[in-house]
Design a protein that fits this description.
This protein has five helices and four strands, in the order αβααβααββ. By secondary structure, the chain is of the alpha+beta class. A hairpin with a 5-residue loop joins strand 3 and strand 4. 12% of the residues are buried.
Length: 127
């Protein structure tokens, strides 16, 4: 949708980026009104992986449309809650998932790993 509103192809690597993972070095190119895509096109927009998809180029797309926004995420952060004004319809906590038998207890395990240069890290011992 971003590329349609911009009238140009989108670099797919932009879709994988979120402010949790990098610091922006510049301002995104803004979308402009496109008479072929009316702002009233959608009644609501479902945002998968909302903790990643409400920033950068995609935020401009969300702002373009006059629609209700429904965000889905398993890992919200403060910015995600802020974007949706803490309007949480359903919350399924880790603790509840454990109590329901859907998740196991958390455990920290250290593993040995070799990187591309065959350098090892980790001691391979649990805990």
């Amino acid at each position: 949708m971003y590329s349609i509103l911009r009238g140009e192809e989108l670099d797919e690597s932009v879709e994988e980026a979120s402010p949790n993972e990098f610091r922006s070095t510049g301002r995104s190119r803004e979308v402009a009104y496109n008479e072929r895509v009316l702002i009233e096109t959608f009644d609501f927009i479902i945002i998968e992986e909302a903790h990643r998809s409400i920033y950068n180029e995609w935020k401009q797309v969300l702002d373009y449309f006059d629609a209700f926004l429904i965000g889905l995420t398993a890992t919200p952060d403060k910015r995600t809650f802020g974007f949706f004004n803490r309007n949480v319809v359903s919350e399924y906590t880790y603790e509840r998932a454990v109590a329901d038998g859907r998740r196991g207890e958390r455990a920290l395990r250290r593993v040995r790993h070799r990187n591309r240069n065959h350098q090892e890290w980790g001691n391979g011992k649990g805990g």
